[in-house]
Amino acid sequence: MPQSRTDGPRGSLLTISLNRLDINLLRVFDAVMEERSVERAGRRICLSPSAVSHALARLREMLDDELFTPTRSGMKPTARALAMAPLVRHAWESLEVAIGLPKFEPGSSARRFTIAASDFIVTVMGPHLLNLLRREAPHVDLVIRSESRTDLAKQIDLGEIDAAIGTFSGVSDRFRSIPLFSYDDVLIASSSLRLGKLSLETFSRLTIAAVSMHSEQESVVGGFLSERGLERRSEMYDRAGLDRALAGSTRNPRVAILLPHFLALPSLLEDPHLAAIVPRPLAGTLVRMHPLSMYKLPYRSDPVGVGILWHTRNTGDAAQEWLHDMLRRSAEPLRPLLAELDRLAPRVRPAGGDAIPIDGAQHAALRRVP
């Protein structure tokens, strides 16, 4: 049977030598080989000349070779040292890579990242993110998958998704997250539908469209889908807030259409008999692009937090942390949006006190678009 590398006298001697080896001796050897001077080698690695000499003595004893002999022109390497030098240099460089911080150069990287996000998130964050990528990482590519996939947690576990953006709760210890921005709900409708001040009575007569990204057959509880140690928001409107507001009402608005995404809303809202409850940042975008008006709801919807979610194994990875930072920066214009629109709302009231619907042109004029 063939012997292993540690079988026999030679293998045993090799094992003993490696077990006794102080890795710093190789650092000294490499410095002396490069500088051919004990004094210069010491300055290079921040050791005194006596410490360098002591280290060389230990290495000479261990290898049973002089390694370097003093000459007028400097320390002359022996044949053994010359044979060792490229191997030690390569080994030392490999160790520096192994234990050093991994490098990621976004300006030259051609890496592809996969992100899970809803069409709402892509609409409000996508333009800012693309601008950042164009300036700082022009060769990096993105694959964006729907956050509504029922196997999202599994895809993150398998490493097929680098990060997910959404509203998460009950997060397992194997995931990490950071917040991005918060929002509340508003109502949007065709600009031809003049609702005036939106009271509960007026609101209760409306026909409503809303977004729910998962079916009733899935494990949706309290508006959240639960799967594999991760809960994520499924109903994209505050149904609990709506139910509380209308608890004593004799007439409730008819939620006539539940959609799996927001994409179709502008077309559907061409019907003047339909209105939609949507996140405020999305409403701001839609009223700039379509003949729509935005209204403050006649009840308080609970603020919703949006964050980035990733697997713990990606924590500390330079490329992944760069991605998280880019996503965080792309959400910065959304953070003051809620306060800004609340501040502007009192300015669009006529003398009679009824709210004037803010259409796309008015909204763009009032609010500086990031």
CATH class of the largest domain: Alpha Beta
| Structural domain tally | 2
Number of strands: 17
The coarse silhouette is rod-shaped
Distance between the termini: 73 Å
Give the count of helical stretches. 14
Helix content: 25-40%
Q: Give the averaged pLDDT, no decimals.
A: 81
What topology emerges from the helices and strands here?
Layout: H1 8-20, H2 23-35, H3 38-44, H4 49-63, E1 68-71, E2 74-77, H5 79-99, E3 112-117, H6 119-136, E4 141-146, H7 152-157, E5 163-166, E6 168-169, E7 175-183, E8 185-190, H8 200-204, E9 207-211, E10 220-221, E11 224-227, E12 230-233, H9 239-245, E13 254-259, H10 265-268, E14 274-279, H11 280-289, E15 292-295, E16 304-311, H12 318-330, H13 337-344, E17 358-359, H14 360-366
Parallel strand pairs: 3-4, 3-5, 9-13, 9-14
Antiparallel strand pairs: 1-2, 5-16, 6-12, 7-16, 8-14, 8-15, 10-11, 11-12, 15-17
Helix pairs in contact: 2-3, 2-4, 2-5, 3-4, 6-12, 11-14
Q: What keywords describe this structure?
A:
370 residues; alpha+beta; Arc Repressor Mutant, subunit A; D-Maltodextrin-Binding Protein, domain 2; 2 domains; five-stranded mixed beta sheet; 40% helix
